[in-house]
């Protein structure tokens, strides 16, 4: 087999790739290699299959066809393909939002029969006020039912504005109105975008790209933001919590259940069911010492953030986890689930169970999930896992001994308390640290894994480079899991990887230099952190003026380009790797990498070189600092250059008592990590 080191930066993954070869199992890397060479026309975005006169391929060298059968040129074809990808990505995240709103409405109208309840009444009341739902002298369920109805209406809204859009800074909203890209309704923008890409409709590439931005904004400031809000109401707002990550979290003597996908409505119930005394007794009768639930991808992040459950891995770990022989059952819902899973699971005794009516996988067992019957379904799945444990062959179990401590659970709502203290909560300490030159800026590093790039290598290279230059990093999704496995989500990582200015800040308040903000729909939390920095004042009146940036170093799915586009539309400089399929059009690249900045304040940097991405981000942060006339960076090459501030420099990290005593992966210990005192 090819050298595992060329396939993954994760030692646990490398170990399991060798094991895959021993078992004769093909993984995503093998299937990717089988497809080489990849279609050059498709890579450039120059293949069009919109109608049945084609597919039409435009010759990038100008020696053959320069237009398709209908007359569409390279620029239109590339823009149309990109727009279709954005529509699909926006639909995926926003449909997630619709699902949790339906569960929320059911919980409000049907009481506790389903097992769902309002876990965060404070957030419910805050949202009710924002959405114009009366709450005085009304029962909690009545408020929730009205709020759910108003949220559900956002998907079919025809004229706008979307309610969460009002959270954006006024200047950003003015830009959107001027461009005509302020979303009117979530579903409307996705449908209209798809209509524009139909044969014989929109033929102006830049107009298509602007329509794609409107659909992307409907996701970022609409469907995704609603999903995050509702999940916080139903399952509780996250708090900083310790846990562990990587394949070593699987337990040899326990029933191991992996949850994989994106919607937490079932996974939260599975966690609850796994803790019930009769389920634990059933496991003991089968010879197990307990029930261990771990996650893959964004479902992992959801139950990590709220329950402290361990993470088995990110996207490219899903097959490797099954090859350990220790997983008794994997339950999946939607998005990023490989159809190969049942074939890989067949190497061992492992069951693969699908649950969504939208996502069936050949060879998997389907147990339909309905929110009104959630408790029973969760208990049935746990019982199936216990039954499968009895068929496990201990001699064939191979669990890599790699796992890493992490701290996660940060949000736009609790960060002010961790940064400013219980009695001085706010973003002022962060703003002061940026203004004084201790922190260069804040960068969101998000997104997927792809078999085209050595797993995790770009995430780790970029984040380590940024930390060394005193950049505070915030993360979501599979990118956060990559850094968790490498130890970057520990408070101690500030001493090991951060520049001295960032090190001072992290040591003073006891947070890691990389803050995990949740799943990929929780990118909406990052938008709100940026908006809060603007609202606090002092470093810009618009998102485009802040020393902030974003990056997707190992982009894989259509959701990734949608996220990148709503970041750019929100005024954020965004590095995107690998280059999306736009290289075949000079017009599309010119607009997305340059011209759009005059309209939204943000732009893309498309590159396959992660060092170029890092340099571009750092240059962007420095240019924004210069424009705001902020102080020079306090440290240059590790040497203090100027200034003295309120943060105390330390040479050895001493964790606050709450962090030092916090247990790993135990939900009942969530309260031990509290915002620091002033």
The biggest beta sheet is recorded as: 6 strands, parallel
Number of helices: 27
Structure summary, number of beta strands:
18
Strand order of the largest sheet: 6-5-4-7-8-9
**Rg result:** 24 Å
Range of strand content: 5-15%
Mean pLDDT: 91
The residue fraction in helices comes out at 40-55%
Q: Categorize the overall geometry.
A: globular
Structural class: alpha/beta
Query: Ends: how far apart?
Result: 56 Å
Which runs of at least 5 residues are low in confidence (pLDDT < 50)? Answer: 643-678
Plain-language structure description:
With 678 residues, the protein is an alpha/beta fold. It is built from 27 helices and 18 strands. The model is unreliable at 643-678 (pLDDT under 50).
Per-chain topology:
Layout: H1 11-23, H2 28-34, H3 40-44, E1 47-48, E2 56-57, H4 74-110, H5 121-131, H6 140-156, H7 170-179, H8 186-197, H9 205-235, E3 241-245, E4 255-260, H10 264-274, H11 277-285, E5 291-296, H12 297-307, E6 311-313, H13 318-323, E7 329-332, H14 341-345, E8 351-354, E9 365-366, H15 374-389, E10 404-408, H16 415-420, H17 428-436, E11 441-445, H18 457-468, E12 471-475, H19 477-485, H20 493-497, H21 500-509, E13 514-516, H22 523-536, E14 548-552, H23 558-569, E15 574-576, H24 586-595, H25 597-600, E16 604-606, H26 610-627, E17 635-636, E18 639-640, H27 657-661
Parallel strand pairs: 4-5, 4-7, 5-6, 7-8, 8-9, 11-12, 11-14, 12-13, 14-15, 15-16
Antiparallel strand pairs: 1-2, 3-10, 17-18
């Amino acid at each position: 087999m090819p050298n595992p080191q060329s396939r993954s930066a994760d030692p646990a993954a490398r170990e399991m790739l060798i094991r895959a070869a021993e078992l004769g199992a093909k993984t995503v890397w093998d299937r990717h290699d089988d497809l080489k060479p990849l279609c050059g026309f498709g890579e450039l975005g120059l293949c069009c299959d919109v109608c049945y006169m084609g597919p039409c391929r435009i010759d990038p060298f100008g020696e053959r066809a320069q237009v398709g059968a209908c007359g569409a040129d390279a620029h239109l074809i590339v823009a149309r393909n990109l727009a279709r990808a954005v529509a699909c990505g926006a639909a995926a995240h926003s449909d997630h939002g619709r699902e949790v709103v339906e569960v929320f409405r059911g919980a409000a109208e049907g009481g506790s029969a389903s097992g769902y309840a309002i876990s965060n009444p404070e957030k419910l009341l805050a949202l009710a006020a924002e959405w114009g739902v009366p709450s005085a002298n009304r029962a909690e369920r009545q408020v929730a039912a009205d709020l759910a109805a108003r949220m559900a209406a956002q998907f079919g809204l025809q004229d706008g504005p979307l309610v969460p859009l009002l959270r954006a800074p006024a200047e950003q909203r003015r830009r959107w109105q001027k461009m005509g890209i302020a979303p009117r309704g979530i579903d409307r923008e996705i449908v209209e975008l798809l209509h524009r890409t139909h044969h014989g409709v929109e033929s102006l590439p830049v107009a298509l790209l602007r329509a794609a931005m409107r659909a992307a904004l409907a996701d970022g400031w609409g469907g995704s933001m609603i999903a995050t809000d509702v999940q916080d109401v139903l399952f509780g707002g996250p708090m900083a919590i310790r846990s562990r990550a990587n394949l070593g979290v699987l337990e040899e003597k326990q029933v191991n259940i992996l949850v994989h996908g994106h919607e937490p409505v079932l996974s939260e119930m599975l966690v609850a069911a796994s803790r019930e005394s009769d389920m634990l007794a059933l496991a003991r009768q089968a010879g197990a010492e307990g029930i261990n639930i771990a996650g893959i991808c964004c479902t992992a992040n959801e139950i990590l953030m709220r329950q402290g459950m361990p993470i088995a891995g990110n996207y490219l770990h899903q097959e490797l986890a099954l090859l350990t022989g220790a997983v008794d059952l994997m339950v999946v819902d939607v998005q990023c689930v490989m159809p190969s899973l049942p074939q890989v699971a067949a190497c061992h005794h492992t069951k693969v169970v699908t649950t969504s009516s939208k996502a069936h996988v050949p060879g998997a067992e389907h147990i339909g999930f309905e929110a009104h019957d959630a408790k029973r379904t969760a208990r049935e799945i746990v019982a199936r896992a216990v039954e499968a444990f009895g068929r496990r062959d201990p001699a064939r179990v191979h669990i890599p001994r790699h796992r890493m401590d992490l701290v996660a659970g940060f949000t736009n709502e609790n960060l002010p308390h961790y940064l400013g203290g219980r009695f001085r909560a706010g973003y002022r300490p962060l703003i002061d640290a940026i203004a004084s030159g201790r922190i260069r800026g804040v960068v969101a590093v998000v997104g997927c894994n792809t078999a085209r790039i050595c797993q995790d290598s770009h995430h780790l290279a970029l984040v380590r480079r940024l930390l060394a230059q005193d950049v505070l990093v915030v993360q979501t999704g599979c990118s956060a899991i990559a850094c968790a496995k490498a130890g970057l989500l520990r408070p101690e990582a500030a001493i090991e990887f951060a520049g001295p200015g960032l090190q001072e800040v992290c040591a003073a308040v006891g947070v890691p230099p990389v803050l995990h903000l949740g799943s990929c729909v929780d990118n909406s939390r990052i938008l709100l952190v940026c908006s809060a920095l603007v609202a606090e004042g002092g470093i810009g009146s618009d998102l485009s003026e802040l020393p902030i940036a974003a990056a997707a170093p190992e982009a894989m799915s259509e959701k990734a380009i949608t996220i990148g586009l709503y970041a750019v539309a929100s005024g954020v400089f965004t590095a995107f790797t690998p280059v999306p399929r736009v290289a075949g059009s000079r017009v599309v690249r010119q607009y997305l990498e340059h011209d759009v900045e005059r309209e939204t304040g943000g732009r893309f940097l498309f590159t396959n070189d992660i060092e170029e991405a890092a340099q571009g981000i750092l240059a962007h942060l420095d240019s924004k600092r210069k424009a705001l006339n902020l102080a020079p960076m306090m440290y240059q090459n590790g040497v203090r250059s100027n200034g003295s501030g309120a943060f105390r420099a330390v040479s050895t990290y001493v964790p606050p008592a709450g962090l030092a005593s916090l247990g790993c992966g135990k939900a009942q210990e969530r309260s031990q990590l509290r915002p620091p005192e002033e």
